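JOB MANIFEST
job_type = single_chain_structure
chain_count = 1
residues = 81
[input]
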Amino acid sequence: MSISLKNLDESKATVVSAMNVAAEVRKAREAVGYSVDDLAVTCGLVTNEIIEIENGENADPAKLRRIAAALQVPPSDFVPL
């Protein structure tokens, strides 16, 4: 089944807020014992980018996918499919 505006059931659609993403990123990072610096090195982002994401100031899907790969969690934990 493909999703189109005609068959999207809006009552089941969810919006992931930047703050929810921020909390999930922080929780996943802490679960593997990484500091912000460790995660930045592992995923190839700079420390300030990780801090912005964890503060809910940035939810760039490309960056979130890199973080998910570094933490070995499904990208869907951070980026809605």
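[summary]
DSSP finds four helices and no strands in the chain.
Residues 18-73 form a domain with the 434 Repressor (Amino-terminal Domain) fold (CATH 1.10.260.40).
exit_status = 0
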